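Researcher: Quick sanity check before group meeting.
Model: Go ahead. Protein one:
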Amino acid sequence: MNFNPLFFYKLTGQLKYLLFACLFIGSCTIPKKYQKGKPFITKNSIEVKGGKFSKEERASLKQRLNAQLDDSSRITTVTKYFIRHVIISPPAFDTASAAKSARNMETSMLHLGYYKAHASYTADTLQVGDQQRVQVNYVVEVNKPTLIDTMMYILRRPDLQQLAVKNMENSLIQKGKPVTKAAVLGELNRLVDLYRNNGYYKFSLEELVMRGDTTVAALTTITDDIFEQLQLLAEAQRARDSPTIKLAVVLNPPADSSRLKQYYINNIYILPDYRTGDNINDSSLTTRYL
């Protein structure tokens, strides 16, 4: 049997086209159990604009934002044979749900210290046969984070104030860092542990409040001096370009004053023969060695 190079070349080319066509058809998104006659979501995309993030940080942020999608905007995709994507019961597109997802993303950015982040969305509809496939594109403009300008304790109790200031070097709130929900809660919990470990064993998170002030002093100062006015305007512009916040931990006075009481160790008893049900106040069970 004679080998024909030209025939082999043509056959190889045809097989390539056939393989490409199979991959193209197989890699298409296939919705299952969708609502007839209604536009439904087949894809959610999130774009993050701005921010000084590394590649890994940006990818992690997108995952965080994706978790903020409203339940009515989530899609479940099953990948088959590595190239075929099947969407099971895709949700009907709802503008209210998309708007809620955008608000959730703004709130999530707020917790990371981006007080001026803005999220928006657009929806593109693609007609495929009798299907109205919707791709929702979210754009999150992070803008600049709000940085911590100052941090102080205003506890109005000399004992609590002294203990907090003494251990301030361990604070989770650092000047120049973005103010985040995690850092604020972490700092309050740190103080609660600090007080409990120093005898205030009834002290709880309810006794502390973190207050923040983002007021620009230059905008609340009144002066007739034209040069001072120009200086204040320049300061106000710098504050808008680089937003900051002043933080303070303040005491929330409890109704039960014993929560702020410091307790001390009194007597220590060792009961080697103690059994469940024994009365620890029974003098026959105790022997004083000190």
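Researcher: Fine. The other one?
Model: Protein two, sequence then structure:
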Amino acid sequence: MEQQRFVLLPTVGGAWVIRDTQDGSPVCVLFHGGRGIKKTRAMADVMLDALNAAVGRHAQGGKR
């Protein structure tokens, strides 16, 4: 399985952070708030898919 550049990690405070594994920087912090965990996780998965797909296209010389 190919390692993804952007990953979702839990925080101590119960939030999630999307982190760039290339330099370790946080890209986005997500709090589930009133949406609930399932909806927040679904949104995070869409964001991760988009970020990782964009990196893949860029690495292959594709247009943004």
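Researcher: One line on it for the slide.
Model: The first helix runs from residue 37 to 59.
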